[in-house]
Amino acid sequence: MPTPIQTPASSLQAGRDYPPSYADLLAWFPDDAACLDYLEWLRWPNGFFCPQCETPSHWRMGDGRFWCAHCQRRVSVTAGTIFHRTRTPLMVWFAAAWYMTSAKNGVSAKTLHKLLNFGSYQTAWTMLHRFRSAMVRPGRDLLTGEVEVNEIFIGGLKSGKRGRGAEGKTLVAVAVELLSPKGFGRCRLRVIPDTQASTLRLFLLDYVKPGAVIVTDGFSSYPDAIKSDYQHKLYVVTRSNDPAHVCLPGVHRIASLLKRWLLGTHQGAVEADHFKRTSMSSHSVSTGANQSFVVFFFGDSSNRLFKWSHYPIRLWL
């Protein structure tokens, strides 16, 4: 199978690889034909080949689809994607992607419904749901290097105990790569039932590569969760003169962005049963990049928009 070119998001340039503003988005994609041309470039950067028999020989049909010369399969650019057989213009899909990724606070289905003048709220909700389901890549690479790990609680202000042991809130484990000399890399979030060592260990094994350096606070469950699979760097916040957000800046940055996104997108109201999907889709928000559209549309890992099982291509991170 031909291997598509993988371009790291960090090497992409505004105005060349992606539109740097909403005005440029409208100029780049004035109609659905321009959107299809762009999706074709993303899907087949080295030229078309059949996803069924992997043959490059083809004819272009009058309706824009490809006719494989070998197996005679008819293939459209949007086949096997979240855009397949949509009745909503691709221009609207692209505009929704821009709104969804350009604001740190995210965008709610209600807001999108008003911005794009959809006929129904359900259309906006379904569109966002498709985008969010495509933003999570199964089999993601494990985190490496120094990885900050902690738990956060989601659920707004409530009376009673704060921090670990708070009632009526959703417990979320967070892992964030620490870059050198500064900055943060990828992050992973998971809703967890408790903070027992066995639960935290499963989270680490699923998301962090063995041998990595795990940076935590002094919580007693972490030594048993880490064991000999990882190196352990410990910060006991109560013995430090620094506040928790200084000792563990990555987790607190992610928590802040996540809560800001939940407040802007869902007005802070997310039930625990639905938070698992919400927290997974928030990976895109947690980057905190101003070029969110780049991360969303031009990630350097396998594509989830194009869910064709025979063809891995690049799109969202």
Low-confidence sequence ranges: 1-6, 279-317
Described by strand count, sense and barrel closure, the largest sheet is: 5 strands, mixed
What is the molecular shape?
globular
* Helix content percent band: 25-40%
State the strand order across the main sheet: 6-5-4-7-8
- Proportion of residues in extended strands: 5-15%
Strand count: 8
- Count every helix, treating DSSP H or I runs of 4 or more residues as helices: 11
Return Rg in Å: 22 Å
**Structural class per helix/strand content?**
alpha/beta
Straight-line N-to-C gap: 22 Å
Q: What is the residue-mean pLDDT, rounded to a whole number?
A: 76
The helix/strand series, from N terminus to C terminus, equals HHEEEHHHEEEHEHEHHHH
Quaternary organisation of the protein chains: single chain
Structure report:
The protein is an alpha/beta fold. The chain has eleven helices and eight strands. The strands form two sheets. A five-stranded mixed sheet has the order 6-5-4-7-8, sandwiched between helices. A hairpin with a 5-residue loop joins β5 and β6. α4 crosses α5. The chain is globular and about 70 Å long.
Structural key phrases:
317 residues; alpha/beta; five-stranded mixed β-sheet; three-stranded antiparallel β-sheet; 34% helix; disordered N terminus; disordered C terminus
